[in-house]
Design goal:
The longest helix has 14 residues. It is built from five helices and four strands. α3 crosses α5 and α4 packs across α5. The chain has one domain: Alpha-Beta Complex (Conserved hypothetical protein from pyrococcus furiosus pfu- 392566-001, ParB domain), CATH 3.90.1530. By secondary structure, the protein is an alpha+beta fold. A four-stranded mixed β-sheet has the order 1-4-2-3. The chain starts with 13 loop residues before the first helix and ends with a strand.
Length: 127
């Protein structure tokens, strides 16, 4: 029997961009956060393994009992498409990790489903 695959939407939802902006505005100026969001809207999607995104971001893996992770795992098991994750490239030479602007819970849910599963992402450079 073939293993179920994670389904991905072609585009992030507007609420994902809004959430990303709110988070990025905590890290960057308002104008910089707006530029990052505009860049994220214009880049093509890429795929990266869940385990690599967690390592590059230096974020801890949330447990499979986290309410939002549970919600996303249910979506995966029901075959419902998840929105792509929104990312800002880090810089290891400056000690800056990958920034998960939106989609941290989705990364964790996919990791619990299968850490090797490719996650659809939009990745931009900044700074």
């Amino acid at each position: 029997m073939a293993r179920q695959k994670v389904q991905w939407k072609k585009e992030p939802e507007e609420e994902d961009y809004d959430a990303a902006f709110r988070y990025l505005h905590l890290l960057y100026s308002q104008s910089a956060a707006k530029k990052i969001i505009a860049s994220l809207r214009g880049v093509p999607q890429i795929r990266q393994a869940a385990k690599d995104l967690l390592r590059a971001s230096a974020l801890p893996l949330l447990g499979d009992d986290n309410a939002q992770v549970v919600k996303d795992l249910k979506r995966i098991h029901r075959g419902k498409a998840l929105p792509p994750v929104l990312l800002v490239r880090g810089d290891a030479t400056r000690g800056l990790p990958l920034v998960v602007a939106d989609g941290y819970h989705r990364i964790c849910a996919v990791y619990h489903f299968d850490e090797e599963t490719p996650i659809c992402c939009r990745l931009v450079e900044f700074g």
